[in-house]
Amino acid sequence: MINFNGKLHANAAILSLENRGYKYGDALFETIKVINGKPLFWEDHYFRLMASMRIMRMEIPMGFTMEFLESEILKTLEANSLDQKIARVRITVDRGEGGNYLPISKQINFSISSSLLNESKYVINEVIKCEVDLFKDFFINEGLLSNLKTNNKITNILGSIYAQENDLDNCLLLNNSKNVVECLNGNIFLVHGNIIKTPPLTDGCLKGIMRQQLIGLLNKNEKFTLDESSISTFELQKADELFYTNVIKGIVPITHYRKKTYKTQIAQELLGNLNTKIGT
């Protein structure tokens, strides 16, 4: 069942060809992990969505409160018998239909879909390797729009195809200054000694929810020093560890980059801290 503007539909084909999210990518989305009816980091997701809608000059309805959207998420989960399970939820907000580049209406649509997940606790499988390389065909723009989770993800799509064609598990995306920005599906962190680096938002990385959670944990951890600064490609060979983050998988260690092999101890430690925080 799909929730479209608060009504449940058995058929997912509820958008017309004139939908602006389909035609122009004029849409935003949030991907949320839900455990037994509890959306993880829901407040952070909600406020990121609201901030993104303002940047996109979308008119936010008065009733679009955090409580309202959470109730719509739970309604969708119950309709799909996922309210007492581990689920992945996607909320999409678009500007409806009509107009060319200029919208003819300020009215927005929202849709909520859900699917089953297997793991509640974030885990690292030490058996699984994650080999990456640079994706250099196209670059991420530095600036505010690249921080948003919009439907315009063509660079990530082409990078994913490139990774598959070259037997890679992921790729590192670069910005116009040729600095490492993020992975195809998450924010990047680099460990060198007791310093943990992640690119600043000004470099064009996604303003990730799990990135935000991990930064909060690191700021309270006296063992490590957080450094939000640009990561050059030359630093990759000198790093002790490299990992990426997203809300579905948590922390994913990168094990190989070209001839470099990385450790995973710090990623394991931080993942334990994360699970303790969320109580799983």
Descriptive labels:
280 residues; alpha+beta; ten-stranded mixed β-sheet; six-stranded antiparallel β-sheet; 6 helices; 25% helix; 30% strand; globular
Number of strands: 16
Question: Could you name the ranges where pLDDT drops below 50 across 5 or more consecutive residues?
Answer: none
Q: Give the SSE order as H and E letters.
A: EEHEEHHEEEHEEEEHEEEEEH
Distance separating the two termini = 28 Å
Percentage beta strand? 25-35%
Discrete helix count: 6
The main β sheet shows up as: 10 strands, mixed
Q: By helix and strand content, what is the structural category?
A: alpha+beta
DSSP helix fraction: 25-40%
Q: Report Rg.
A: 19 Å
User: How confident overall, as mean pLDDT?
Assistant: 95
Shape: globular
Architecture overview:
This protein has 280 residues and is of the alpha+beta class. It has helices at residues 20-24, 42-55, 66-79, 154-165, 209-219, 265-278; strands spanning 2-4, 7-9, 27-35, 38-39, 86-94, 109-116, 131-140, 170-175, 180-183, 186-192, 195-198, 225-228, 241-246, 250-254, 256-257, 260-261. The strands form two sheets. Strands 7, 8, 9, 10, 11, 12, 13, 14, 15 and 16 form a ten-stranded mixed β-sheet that branches. It has a six-stranded antiparallel β-sheet with strand order 2-1-6-5-3-4. The longest helix is centred in the N-terminal third of the chain and has 14 residues, at 42-55. The chain is globular, with a radius of gyration of 19 Å. The chain starts with a strand and ends with a helix.
